[in-house]
Amino acid sequence: MTHPTTPAAASSAERAAEPGTAAAPTTAELDRLDPLAGYRERFLPSDGLVAYLDGNSLGRPLRVTADHLGAFVARDWGGRLIRAWDEQWMELPFSLGDRIAAATLGAAPGQTVVADSTTVLLYKLMRAAVDARPGRHELVLDDDNFPTDRFVAEGIARERGLRIRWISVDPARGVELDQVRAAVGPDTALVVLSHVSYRSGFLADMEGITRVAHDAGALVLWDLCHSVGSVPTRLDEWNVDLAVGCTYKYLNGGPGSPAFGYVARRLQADLEQPVQGWMGAADVFAMGDGFVPGEGMRRFLSGTPPVIGMLAMQDMLDLIEEAGIDAIRAKSIALTEHALRLVEKQLVPLGVTIATPKAAEERGSHVTIRHPEFREVTARLWEQGVIPDFRAPDGLRIGLSPLSTSFAELQRGIDAIETALTGGATAAGSS
């Protein structure tokens, strides 16, 4: 499995956290050695918050975003009014898409657009992809993929008369290369997989799986929702066909911020997306009698761009560009390594099991642990200002957003989970 890293990006905190070292670093040492520690002060504090461990569901807002939203209302919307469409808003889906591509995706300009919700973009690109492979009758997905991916695929299969070949996976891991190799064949039109599993945090071998699917003549669509902004990719280098990702997790775009879609340049002219709207037309203001698709990524737009929903993520992209995605990945590894050590020490003796790969190269930026009481425990933790999230039937996810999460915050969260499981008596204490 190949994952992009650079020696310079490996922080001293990450090196200290490597398995096999003489002594594991303490929480205080990790925070002191963290080269990205200063970024935490740029996020808006939350009253009553003890530990926020759900950055893989909704990222925290930046301090500057409140000012920028107010300025937008007064200056861009209130001041320029309809003129702002010509001055900046019409091109925002493309310019912002290019920023996401350059900072996080390893993709050249002109292949990424910010548009609809994740579900809508998945539908548009999945439908376009299967229609571009006439004579093939199968979609390949894993049975533990995120529900919206599976639900959209089921609907498209009904619409287009296709079959779904399900890959059965270990829910504590994810889709393995050999499983994809066994599933694809001459009848495969499209493979749809998540780069990072929403349940276990397993990091799939995007490069290898894409190559295997291409060898079978199939296209591949990657769901990047749980990796974009925390795990670097090389979409162009790895010859990826299509990708969709949300912007409210590690890109901190806010609740309901729009998703982005990536379509490799080599495919754009051949794909016909099914939701034909005026913003996807070659001449948006021609008001023509029939639809003529636009060039490049414009053809994948449908309706009016959600401009307000694109504002907050621009502030987070400033930080990602400044810190560098490889340094962010190094911090993510250090955080998840420390989380695993704390869980092993404090929670495993209480009956907790780990449902996330222990090898850093197989893990995204969240750790999932399991216990039969976690549904009730999570509800109690939220009341105390400790915010992980629960995934049925018994999983608690510890989501670690590298630029906003400290090692001390992680420690407080683990301590609170321990206390909740022991009824108030802490066995191991802080380290």
Task: Summarize the entry for a quick read.
This protein is of the alpha/beta class.
Give an overview in words.
- It is an enzyme of class 3 (hydrolase).
- It comes from Herbiconiux aconitum.
- GO terms for molecular function: kynureninase activity.
- It catalyses: L-kynurenine + H2O = anthranilate + L-alanine + H(+); 3-hydroxy-L-kynurenine + H2O = 3-hydroxyanthranilate + L-alanine + H(+).
- Residues 8-24 have a biased composition (Low complexity).
- The protein is of the alpha/beta class.
- It has two domains: 7-61 and 324-422, Alpha-Beta Complex (Aspartate Aminotransferase, domain 1), CATH 3.90.1150.10; 66-319, 3-Layer(aba) Sandwich (Aspartate Aminotransferase, domain 2).
- The chain has helices at 12-16, 27-33, 63-80, 83-87, 92-105, 118-131, 147-160, 177-183, 206-215, 265-268, 311-323, 325-347, 374-383, 407-422, and strands at 51-52, 112-114, 138-142, 163-167, 188-194, 219-223, 242-245, 260-263, 353-354, 366-370, 386-387, 389-391, 395-399.
- A seven-stranded mixed beta sheet has the order 2-8-7-6-5-3-4, sandwiched between helices. A four-stranded antiparallel beta sheet has the order 9-10-13-12, covered by helices on one side. A two-stranded parallel sheet has the order 1-11.
- Helix 6 runs parallel beside helix 7 (147-160), helix 12 (325-347) runs parallel beside helix 14 (407-422) and helix 13 (374-383) packs across helix 14 (407-422).
- The longest helix has 23 residues, at 325-347.
- It starts with 11 loop residues before the first helix and ends in a 9-residue tail after the last helix.
